Amino acid sequence: MEHHVDSGDFDWDAVENDDNLELWVIRVPEGVKPKHLEDLKLDAPSTSKTSRIGSIDRKHTSYDVWSLGDHDEDESVGGEELRGLSCLLPRQKKGGKLYQAPKPVARHLVISARPTLPTPAHSSDSSSQSSPLTSHNPARFCYPKEVLKHRFMPLGSLAPVEDLSEIEVDAALLVKKPSHQSHTAAQERGDTSGKKRKGGGDVPKKSKKAKMAA
Q: Do residues 72 and 49 touch, judged by C-beta distance below 8 A?
């Protein structure tokens, strides 16, 4: 690749000829400059496990330095894209052109801002100071139902329950209806029975022939 740059300490031949040199890929946030990495002391990173190996303290922000393991994936640290990167180094003998690095990347480092922790409340009791402070979200404000104009009703949700007064009225009507029907049925049965009784109580009149014989 034709890209003429100053090789400096990253000359392709210098890296190849020195067995004590390793290639490290470091992801640096916007608030950290390359000069802040000078004289930085780090613990020996592990190649198999993701671990915190150092820190960088600035005026307003503190940063943690993480070493990514080869097979350990920690979603909270990030930097998974670093494992797929390759390195190009300038070669002075070839006019400063960029070539694929003669060595693989040995370490992948991620520098990330340290998450802020809640400040513990001041107390005279030493035991309360030593106990961890749990942060809770404030309670959500609850609006009264009469001021809410719209209601979210997704498909498949249950219909709202009707007013209790309407349910009681409907129940009363249902109870009265069968009583009226039963009363009408009783009247009809009474009429038919009365007719039968009248027909059965009449005595047949004697014929004239029967009177004369008597």
A: yes
Give CA–CA dist 19/4, Å, rounded.
26
- Please answer whether residues 92 and 6 qualify as being in contact, where contact means their C-beta atoms are separated by less than 8 angstroms: no
Per DSSP, the three-state class of 37 is helix
Taken as a whole, the chain contains a residue count of 214
Per residue in 41-94, pLDDT (tens digit) is 888 777 778 888 888 888 788 888 888 887 666 666 777 788 888 888 888 888
Task: Give burial (CB, 10 Å; 0-12/13-18/19+) of 41.
Answer: exposed
Q: Which two tokens stand for residue 82?
A: 């670093």
Question: Domain spans of the chain?
Answer: 8-113, 164-199
Classify 63 as helix, strand or coil: strand
Residues whose CB falls within 8 Å of the CB of residue 107, separated by 6 or more in sequence, listed in order: 22, 24, 25, 45, 47, 67
